[in-house]
Please model this.
Amino acid sequence: VAHIHCEEVFGILGENYTFPVKINKKLVEIIWMKNRDKVAEWEEQSQAVYFTSLKNRGSLNNETGSLTIFNLEKNDTATYVLEYLPFDENNLRLTFILTVLDPPSEPTISCNVSDDSLVLTCAADFKGPLTYTWDFGSITDYKQQQQNIVFLKKNVDASEKVMCFIEVSQTAKSSEFSLAECFP
Model:
């Protein structure tokens, strides 16, 4: 019985990306395919061999089976299949659908004033999930609604500044916002 594993993954343009392979068996043979082309191959007692687009940008870990692509390019977006032969077993395969995304834009912070609070929203142009964190300096009275939305009490000191940080993979960006901008 073939074990089918398919996972959607994403990497950031210009970063290095390692496929999240978890194999806890001794491997004797590894073949990585990109779409239908072989891009990396390893057999026991020999060095890994790289083909086509990964010739100078690939690294195979023959203990875990994982493949690292250095300096991701747009055309690395593809379906990758790992076929591996564990010791004493039949061929197994894992499929990864890799999408290479542009890095996120610098975040922007906007402010809306409601009855009793200031609503700060941090946003960045990015097609995947982002992690948001905030730094409020000396402000202690705030409620976090979602990662990217925060409510401050309206009586906050308008001279205060807040920062929003976004993070994805190995990329982090931030921006600062003066609360004075909430009060025209």
